[in-house]
Amino acid sequence: MDKGVARLAEVVLLGLLVASLSLGVDWMRSQPAPSEALTPIEQRRSSAGDLSLPATPQPAPIEGVPLPTSTPALPATPFPPQAPSVSLAVDERELAPGDAPLLQQEQGTINVLLLGSDASVDQQAARTDTIIVASISPNRPSVSLLSFPRDLQVRFPDGREERINTVFRMGHLEGYPGGGPKLLATVLRKNFGIKVDHYVRVDFAGFIKAIDTLGGVEVLVECELHDTFPDPESPTGKTDLDLYPGRATLSGKQALWYARSRWSTTDFDRARRQQKVLRALLRKVRQNNLLQNALNLFLDFRPYVETSLTPTEILPLIDVARRLDDLAIKSRVLTWPIVRSYARPDGASVLLPTEQTIPFIAEALAPPPGNQAQTRPHVEVYNASARPDMELVAAERLAWEGFLVVGVGTLQGERFPQTQIINYEVVPKGSPIRRLQTIFNVRPENVIGQADPSSPAAARIVLGEDYNPCPNTAQAAGEIQLQPKGPQVPTPTTP
Which of 47, 120, 272, 388 lies in the 20 to 30 Å Cα band around 257? Predict the structure, then answer.
């Protein structure tokens, strides 16, 4: 398999191991099937936390790669001897003037580097084209994910500046003490103040095996996607992947292609898709009650995983996963304008940090605020278009944007040409309407005031035929409210 396909194993591919350590649940739990119309919709309001992806009976595979017909049982694996832990701690005395101050996090927070490389885990000198920091707060519990773009330029300990996806590789090639993982941990500490406790790196074979073992995963596709991938199992040596907005069930290879597609998309888009696949994988793990056998599950996939975590250290993280609830997962991607484009003198196009980067990282890795069922804006979303599953796609987007979705469904026999927002707010202070208008591109005349103090939601979104589910990932980070804290850190040198 060529190097490009190997690169598919980006962090989302760490799959079942991450299920053991972090994202135990997704944004929904139980919700009416899309074919079940809501008439009247007032009678189908759901309470917070009662939403989930409806089950799909034997979905047809996407053309090109058939889905497995059954879910094979995972064999029990003998518990191996505990391996020595790899320390990623950075000696604060080695930091230089101008390095980022240490990021202040809750006591007990565990930061795990999730890495996907362009080679199998037994090949150390590999680029890590995907880098995600998973910040785990066991006491709450919660998990915050932050994706770093591969072209982000960072400072090395010796003062040179290179792309962040080269750090892991150079750590091994140059014999840095502790190798690639330690050098990457050092770079993240020096540039952004992040203290890394552990790392996980997974190869493409492990990801495919994980997905196919589970019988495929179901994702909510936001953006239409068409790409062609090398496929040794195809008679033509290649396979097309054609996806449209809505619900799709993907095999291991399809999920891998979806996560790494480069055609007509940005690195920011890929990061978002990777996190969507990861969440779908974890949802499937929980649906199959595999967390109760998480250690055996991890050991079965151990040949595809390189990690500093020992079985003893994984056990408490499994407990964290069991205790997570729907509101305890947070996702962020480092995008424009938090970073900016720059053409280096050598002609290379890179991304540079800005004065907003460190405040954004602090917000991204902070746990979600407590009591989220009360603090998140409550919304309902209903589909009045001819396209199925749009209400599910929109509801997932709203959850990612910090809303609490308390009602989801379709309107029977009704078609709206344009998306509308029904504003139930009695008092405009703190209203989410402006934010909803931005997300759904709703003009002011399509915002309907209908004050209702008895409504469980601040607003209802009724999706029309004009609804575009594809988000502008390149600007998403700029819409997050930041509160700068502490001194600002100089960014890499530019003219």
Answer: 388
Q: Find the helix or strand (DSSP H, E) in which 152 lies.
A: none
On whether both 329 and 195 belong to a single domain, the answer is yes
Please give the span between the terminal C-alpha atoms of the chain, in angstroms, as a whole number.
41
What is the pLDDT at residue 369?
Answer: 74
102 and 194 in a single domain? The answer is yes
Tell me if 135 is assigned to some domain.
yes
Q: What phi and psi values does residue 35 have, to the nearest 5 degrees? A: -75, -10
* Domain match, 285 and 234 both: yes
Q: Are residues 350 and 412 in the same domain?
A: no
Handedness of CA 385, 386, 390, 391 (dihedral sign): positive
* Claim to verify: residue 209 and residue 249 sit in the same structural domain: yes
The answer for residues whose C-beta is within 8 angstroms of residue 431's C-beta and 6 or more apart is 423, 425, 458
What is the domain extent for residue 175? 3-28+58-365
Work out the burial of residue 27: count CB atoms within 10 Å of its CB; fewer than 13 is exposed, 13-18 middle, 19 or more buried.
Answer: buried
Q: Which two tokens stand for residue 276?
A: 């969507």
Q: Alpha-carbon torsion 442, 443, 444, 447, what sign?
A: negative
Place of tokens 């290879």: 253
39 falls within a domain: no
pLDDT tens-digit series, residues 158-214: 999 999 999 999 999 999 999 999 999 999 999 999 999 999 987 777 788 888 888
Same domain, yes or no: 361 and 384 = no
Q: Phi/psi at 104 (nearest 5 deg)?
A: -85, 120
Longest CA–CA span in the chain (Å) reads 68
pLDDT over threshold 60, residue 73: no
Do 322 and 390 lie in one domain? The reply is no
Task: State pTM to two decimals.
Answer: 0.80
Beta bridge partners of 133: 113, 146
What does the mean pLDDT of the chain come to? 78
In this structure, what CATH number is given to the domain that contains residue 335?
3.40.630.190
